[in-house]
Amino acid sequence: MPQTVVEIKNVEKAYYRDRMPIPVLKNISLTVPEGEYIALMGPSGSGKTTLLNLIAGIDRPDRGQVLVAGTDLGTLGESQLSKWRARHVGFVFQFYNLLPVLSAAGNVELPLLLTKLSPRERKEHVHAALSLVGLEDRMDHSPRQLSGGQEQRVAIARAIVTDPTVIVADEPTGDLDKQSASEILDLLSRLNAEHKKTIVMVTHDPRAAERAHVVRHLDKGELE
Q1: What is the DSSP string of 155-178?
Q2: Domain coordinates of the chain in residue numbers?
Q3: Half-sphere exposure in the Cβ direction for 98 (13 Å, CA)
């Protein structure tokens, strides 16, 4: 039996507007085994990104438990949580979040600066990650010299360069044309199938969701 990578138990989360609580997640429970590829779908405001942020340790629940890679995230202080994220979570965002002043290689290297790897080891890891996404010939290019699809590939290389336990992807094809989106989805499928990466993806796109093994729907803060 595969190990459980993500276990969410009876989680609730609300935000406040003028001291009035606005419920976002209501009694959510979810289990994601190792090697799973799950898509979270739902209308805007349904809580998808909030749930993703809880899994990634970016946000904390009001109630309930979030366990990822065997760690109860609620027991970690902020500095511990930062170190935990650097080791266990790879982030892929809709708008890439690349630093324009750095090359592709420089952007991919950023998560490794928090590790004890030597400069030579970091360079080797960066080359391996960019090769895996098919951009070894674009290492020295800046983001503005790349297409949107190539920028997202750099972002995925940055997400996987630390060999994270789980990849969290928030609308990874939302800003791409159909061809580029298909290539990114092919890449995510390959990372899952060949490299056994656990992927939790938020998407509005049914074509993206089709690539996942499991599709769960959020509506008004409840998981269906």
Answers
A1: HHHHHHTT--SEEEEESTTTTS-H
A2: 4-223
A3: 29
Task: Give burial (CB, 10 Å; 0-12/13-18/19+) of 136.
Answer: middle
In contact, 39 and 10? CB cutoff 8 Å: no
Amino acid at site 137: D
Q: Which residues pair with 68 in a beta bridge?
A: 6, 71
What does DSSP say about strands 222-223 and 214-219: parallel, antiparallel, or unpaired?
Answer: antiparallel
Tokens of 153: 């590939």
CB distance 43 to 224 below 8 Å: no
Buried-exposed string 114-124: b where 16+ CB fall within 10 A, e elsewhere: eeeeeeeebee
Say if CB 60 and CB 73 are below 8 A apart.
yes
Name the average pLDDT for the chain.
Answer: 90
Q: Quick one: tokens of 216?
A: 């769960």
Q: Average the pLDDT over 183-192 and give the result.
A: 91
- pLDDT, tens only, 127-160: 999 998 999 898 999 999 999 889 989 999 999 9
C-alpha span between 22 and 112 (Å, rounded): 38
| Span 35-61, pLDDT tens digits | 999 999 988 878 888 999 999 998 999
Classify domain 4-223 at the CATH topology level.
Rossmann fold (3.40.50)
